[in-house]
Amino acid sequence: MFFKFRIYIVFRFSLKNKMFPKNIILFPLIFLAILPISAEEKRVLKVGTVDNYLPCSDLVDGNFEGLSVDMWRAIAEKNKIHYDLSIIPTFGQAVDDAASGKYDLIASCHKITADRLKKATYAVPYTEGTLGFLSRKKQNKLFIVDLFSDSIVLNSILILTAVSLTGSILLYKVEKGHFEVKDISKQKRTTIMNKFANFVVGEYGELTKEKKGMWIVIFVAFSRILIISTLVGSSASLIFKRDAPKDANALNDESIRNIVYTGVTVNKATKMDDWLQNKVNQSDTIDSSKVKILRATGGEPELVSALKSGKVNHILSDIAVLNRILANIENPDDYVISVKNPNVTPQAFIFGANLENDYRKSINITISEFIRSGKSRELGILWNKLIN
């Protein structure tokens, strides 16, 4: 830009002082038209990406891999952009480096948050993510204990027992004139218990020949269907609930306290790190001396090592990262995604402070085209399959 301005000044000065003929004015104009093209062709963007964060970005055996890396390569190829790609250790440093102009662009899965938008400018979002906890499974009590601790299950069993017993007694009263046994008390007990057992298990074959008795059987049978349906539904729900992740937004102080007291590891200087620290700071019941948070700087390998070694019982990270860890860790049945945030956060590249508007516009247009054509979604599906 400064070079163009200098040529313009020289040109104006020359015209004013009649230093060359008027028809020579075409030469600087042609030169100025050619200059930006050659300058842009030589421009090499400095691009950074965060290490150890598959499926988004990683450096494996000297090769850059991941969703965001493939996305950037496709954008650069379409727009004929020359670039040098290098590794940045953390997301926090990546944001700062983009804001300072050290990098022209950060190609990774950066969550767009209000705090980060105050520092840097983001490209059009091309994917999304959410946080969660991967936890070591507790030595849970037997499922039967959980089953009989559920109020709906208990009430269903009690109601089934009451209805069956009531039906047995009523049926006995309707048919007691037909019994030909001297010990009527013994006959009464045996008859009622037999009919009770039949009602409970649903065997109605020859319980009665009396019309009133038939109505009693129909009533008990219909009630049993409703009760058993409720019992089965509640039992199934309980099975799913045992391993279903909790809502991160609904975690109370007790849940957060249990997590941080039993040990949790998280990538340092990430939004997950900030989220966890805010939860701890907002709690009035958490003793800071008992808090055990290991902030990792070595990415996924360090997170996994801390969990497997028993240093911590939880990993806090993006759900995509947790799914990858769970798919590749030894003895995966010993771990479970215990908490998940249902709200997703858009993720995007970050523009460096010194990146020209022409580049920003071209990159955003290409990302939008990839989203519309489904290319970005295809890359996301591909990388999720690869890591799992």
Q: In brief, what are we looking at here?
A:
The protein is of the alpha/beta class and 388 residues long. It contains 15 helices and 14 strands.
Overview features:
about 400 residues; alpha/beta; D-Maltodextrin-Binding Protein, domain 2; 6-stranded mixed beta sheet; 15 helices; about 55% helix; elongated; disordered N terminus
Describe the structure.
The chain is α/β, with parallel strands linked by helices and 388 residues long. It has three domains: 43-128 and 346-387, Periplasmic binding protein-like II (D-Maltodextrin-Binding Protein, domain 2), CATH 3.40.190; 144-243; 245-340, D-Maltodextrin-Binding Protein, domain 2, CATH 3.40.190. Helices cover 55% and strands 17% of the residues. It contains 15 helices and 14 strands. It has helices at 2-16, 26-42, 67-79, 91-100, 114-119, 143-147, 151-175, 184-201, 211-243, 253-262, 271-282, 300-309, 319-328, 357-373, 375-387, and strands at 44-50, 58-60, 63-65, 82-88, 105-111, 121-122, 127-129, 131-136, 246-247, 264-267, 293-296, 314-318, 335-340, 345-351. The strands form three sheets. Strands 1, 4, 5, 6, 7 and 14 form a six-stranded mixed beta sheet that branches. Strand 2 and strand 3 form a beta hairpin. Helix 3 (67-79) packs across helix 14 (357-373) and helix 7 crosses helix 8 (184-201). 30% of the residues are buried. Mean pLDDT is 81; it is low at 1-11, 29-40 and 179-184.
